[in-house]
Write a structure and sequence with these properties.
The protein has 339 residues and is mostly helical. Helix content is 77%, strand content 0%. The chain contains 12 helices and no strands. The chain starts with a helix and ends with a helix.
């Protein structure tokens, strides 16, 4: 069998595996509040989220986020070895943060790994490492490390105020019953936009792998099996859950009621829908964390456990550079010993 084709198959399998890991790593984003408020059991919640993760396949057909990811590294420096190293680094960091219950960004670890491997490829060729990177998509990603949680926070505050105004004359018991029903809708919306945003990132990686493997040419249409596989993988991953991260997201940042769950999830869904529209690959984790902080702030500043939030910020800041360094090490090993 052609070694290039074999490597391409390995890369595709790893990419789909990363999407599966992304699903259970990020399951907490969609289900943490709905589980902590006891609207659904953990099993019901992951099944609910998985259905809407996959349902996004039928709506998000423009693949703008996938295109942004595909353009992160300059085409001349994209090889199957580069993609392999980036994926292995991203998988390693995702599993590490999952094991320790740290809600880091699967999106950023994938981007960091891809970019780090591309820069290392340039270094091996004797080129300036920076020429391997397309800075426009990188700047978007880096900017939204800050902007996504801030936007999520502000939107959740506004939505909370609107909901409080609408329901100010309602009896607490009646309002609570309605909020629990509405949480089914808001969590579905968050899972839907989460699927649309996150599944596309691996779609972009598989597409450039097929170009690098000479199966496709730049500009060719994406084969339909790629989005179907990616949406199915992330949905199956979500069904596997991520209970360590659920605990952090659902209770450690701030105590979340059904009302606050509706506000946070709706804010997260709006933010993710907006960024997908503009083709910006943002972190679902960052977005929903900002939204949860927003509903906590509306009660009082002390309602947010800032020690937990600061530790999450460190994970966010470190994810891209750590993933890039891991990818550089992996690429060096692959290049020196196997190719």
């Amino acid at each position: 069998m052609d070694p290039t084709f074999t490597l391409l198959v390995v890369v595709i399998i790893l990419a789909i595996g990363f999407d599966y890991i992304n699903g259970f790593h990020d399951a907490a984003n969609s289900i943490a509040t709905i589980v902590s408020t006891k609207v659904l059991t953990p099993f019901q919640a992951v099944l609910w989220a998985a259905v809407f993760n996959f349902a996004a396949y039928f709506y998000f057909t423009d693949h703008k986020v996938a295109n942004t990811i595909a353009k992160t590294v300059v085409e001349n420096y994209i090889t199957l070895e580069v993609i392999l190293a980036g994926l292995l680094a991203a998988i390693a960091w995702n599993l590490f943060t999952w094991w320790f219950g740290i809600p880091s960004s699967s999106s950023h670890t994938l981007i960091g790994g891809f970019a780090g491997a591309g820069m290392t490829k340039a270094a091996f060729l004797g080129h300036n490492v920076l020429v391997a990177i397309n800075f426009a998509p990188i700047f978007k990603v880096v900017a939204f490390i800050v902007l996504a949680p801030v936007i999520g926070m502000l939107v959740s505050v506004v939505i909370s105020i609107i909901i409080l105004h609408i329901s100010k004359n309602a009896r607490p018991s009646v309002a609570e019953k309605w909020f629990k029903r509405l949480q089914l809708v808001s969590s579905a919306a968050l899972s839907f936009t989460h699927g649309g945003n996150d599944a596309q990132k691996v779609m972009g990686i598989i597409y450039v792998a097929m170009v690098a493997g000479n199966v496709l040419h730049t500009g060719d249409s994406m084969p339909e099996w790629i989005p179907i596989s990616c949406y199915a993988a992330i949905a199956l991953g979500t069904m596997s859950g991520g209970w360590k991260i659920v605990k952090t997201m659902g209770s450690k940042i701030t105590k979340v009621t059904a009302f606050e769950g509706v506000a946070a999830e709706t804010a997260g869904a709006i933010t993710l829908g907006m960024t997908e529209h503009f083709g910006i690959p943002v972190s679902t984790t960052h977005t929903i964390t900002g939204s949860i902080v927003g509903v906590g702030l509306l009660k009082r500043v002390s309602a947010v456990r800032w020690g937990v939030t600061v530790s999450l910020l460190w994970a966010w800041v470190l994810t891209i550079p750590v993933s890039a360094v891991l990818a550089a090490i992996v690429f060096s090993i692959i290049h020196l010993f196997f190719f």
